[in-house]
Automatic annotation (TrEMBL):
InterPro entries: NAD(P)-bd_dom_sf, Sc_DH/Rdtase_CS, SDR_fam. Coiled coil: none annotated. Keywords: Oxidoreductase. PANTHER family: OXIDOREDUCTASE EPHD-RELATED, RETINOL DEHYDROGENASE-RELATED. It is an enzyme of class 1 (oxidoreductase). This is Oxidoreductase EphD.
Amino acid sequence: MDFTGRIVVVTGAGSGIGQATARLFSRLGAYVHGADVDRGSVEALVAELGEERAAAHELDVRDAAAVEAFAVDVFARGRGVDVLHNNAGIGHAGEIEHTTIEDWDRVIGVNLLGVAYGVQAFAPRMLEQGRPASIVNTASSLGLVAMGRMAPYCASKFGVVGLTEALHAELAPRGLHVCAVCPGIIDTPITRNAVLRGTPGERREGIAGFYGRYGASADQVAGAVVDAVRRNRVIAPVPRSQVSPAWWAKRMSHRTGQVIARHMPRVVLGRGAGT
């Protein structure tokens, strides 16, 4: 697939996976609308890519009216949208007794409802274009296999995977491909900026170090996003060698999935952090 002249929209484009995806689509010839709650970060990205190749938008994906206005603005420019990457997301970890209602609201609001609002604002307009298009939603390996101490995050990402599968079944026959990209351990700022409570909060430096040592790059995820669009994938784990074994093990046996969920915190948080 040639992306020259295509229009790509990326939320959470100011850093991490979103920034890498915006850069890659731009290199492949697309015009990129980059959106982020931090306007300065997307303005810096546009300065890097060039104003003739990209536009910056300030956007809080938790605000449904703002997402709708964003879609109106993009489509008002008259070129439609070929790829929407609903990528904006936040991290959270902590024992349930240390987790707050505000944590649930924030994580679900950004990670799940932010995707839903993006779909609701863009999908009907993309269907009316009369040409094939794609929506890629950033989920997580923790949307495929659960992990203890991360209930709100897993709930949000499992929701993204389910939303994606349902929408693809509905929309693919009408020319709109929908995919969930499911990153595993990725070295991005989301780990350092996540809300960590209880034991994870005490081990923040160790967690960041673990992701720094063993995490794949945001560029690798961006490549998986482009590949998912080109190949019409529905679920795209990345890196496959890291995510797929646990996913397949869980699909073979839910009991095995529970073993993984209980013991994964020891891997990420260190010994003594098992559930």
